[in-house]
Amino acid sequence: MNLGALILAAGKGTRMYSETPKVLQTLLGEPMLYYVHAALSGVGDLPFWTVIGHGADMVRAAFPEHEAYFIFQEQQLGTGHAVSIAMPVLEKNGIDGLLVVNGDTPLVSSDIICRFLTLMELNSTALGFISIMLEDPKAYGRVVRDNLGRVRGIVECKDFNAAEHGTASGEINTGIYYFSLKILQHLLPQLTNNNKSGEYYITDLVTLAVQEGHRVEAVNFGGEPCLLGVNTPLELSDAENCLRRKINRQWMERGVMLHMPEMITISPRAALEPGACVYGPSEILGKSKLHHGSCVESHCVVRNTDIGTGAIVHSFSHLEHAKIGEGCSVGPYARLRPESVMEKNARIGNFVEMKKAVLREGAKANHLSYLGDADIGAHSNIGAGTITCNYDGVSKHRTQIGERAFIGSNTALVAPVDVGPGALIGAGSVITKDVPEGMLALARAKQTMLPRRK
Ligand code: UD1
Ligand code: CA
């Protein structure tokens, strides 16, 4: 059997009331589609394609590594139509068994998919899908069975009426299906859009298959809330909370200390070593890494940042694409923009902003500074209010500061400029020329004192 998978992700997500395509709405900072991709990647040896349409360019840009596996559905005429658009690609790739997953099912796991596929394979099923039981079937497609318990079809909520379909049992369709390619080739041309939405429904394939006497299996996965489709802001939030609890619990089980875990967001791409500690509310996003003994205090946003052993990030700090070395101290109220590097034991205090800057070992900038496009030597001290003036209105320029330099408070370093090792700059200076090693530079008006007018 040559298995493949197809993710349906072309819809607009009308009920999100957002310009962002639904599959790019985020949970714990990662787009919904990331989770479906991760679940399928975890199955192993299962090639998968993604049907996109609404906001296709945005989706492509968010998943550049998947570029060769996007299939474009120009008009979103329904989930059945989305599958028929993909057929030529699937046939060309010799796929003969197809898993279909709705792109708005972010909590689906590799484990669930494996279990489902195993069942399909064992029973040589031609068409199967996963159902679950809900007390309130909401707007999901309802599974209709005959009095012997055999599946008759899936009826969309809009098209459901009790007189025709019987009372709803609470069994709903999760939007995860298995089809043999043969059955798709045979049934897809028979789909019509003769329903309340005027769409070609993938779910009608079930009814068609039953009518033709094919074996159709609804595999009931009980009450798994993780298989619910996400269509509204409330459902997105419920799914995100569910993921948050799961991920945070796993980190705590591995020895990570989380204070107020319900208020801590940790990306599924982040890594935390045992003995790392986070206080909520905080967000540890993207590919961040927290090493042993590091601590992030409350109200911090840490994105794609590596926080070294024993380093502490004090409250209200915002870190993005930064690298913080062992034993460093950051904040409170610090901002580290991309390519900020702090080497071992460096310190950044309140209201200090760094961007494309390196603070070498033991260097410190404790108060109110902007350090952009700069390299600051080991054990240097950057006084309060120091600004690297890196932008001349056209280009950016670098500031270089040697080891053990001392930059007096309220200094403006007009880049490009080079301050040598051990140099001292008097407070309030505007430095426009290089300062050689060990020199004292004063670049400010001399204080004059005149008698006061009476
Ligand atoms: C669908 C199912 C419903 C099931 C529910 C589970 C149909 C007709 N109904 O309903 O039985 O209970 O999922 O969550 O399938 N999409 C496309 N192209 C289109 C239309 C949709 O790719 O032309 C994608 C969407 O982006 C979405 C997925 O298909 O990821 C499902 O579509 P959606 O409109 O959300 O279907 P539901 O109404 O939720
Ligand atoms: Ca949906």
Name its key features.
454 residues; alpha/beta; Spore Coat Polysaccharide Biosynthesis Protein SpsA, Chain A; UDP N-Acetylglucosamine Acyltransferase, domain 1; 23-stranded parallel sheet; seven-stranded mixed sheet; 8 helices; elongated; binds uridine-diphosphate-N-acetylglucosamine; binds calcium ion
Task: Give a short summary of the structure.
The protein is of the alpha/beta class and 454 residues long.
Question: What does it look like?
Answer:
With 454 residues, the protein is of the alpha/beta class. It has 2 domains: 3-227, Spore Coat Polysaccharide Biosynthesis Protein SpsA, Chain A, CATH 3.90.550; 254-441, 3 Solenoid (UDP N-Acetylglucosamine Acyltransferase, domain 1). It is built from 8 helices and 37 strands. The protein has a 23-stranded parallel β-sheet that branches. It has a 7-stranded mixed β-sheet with strand order 5-4-1-6-10-7-11, sandwiched between helices. A 3-stranded parallel β-sheet has the order 30-33-36, with no helix packed on it. The longest helix is centred in the middle third of the chain and has 21 residues, at 233-253. The protein is elongated, with a radius of gyration of 30 Å. The N and C termini lie far apart (101 Å). The model has no long low-confidence stretch (mean pLDDT 96).
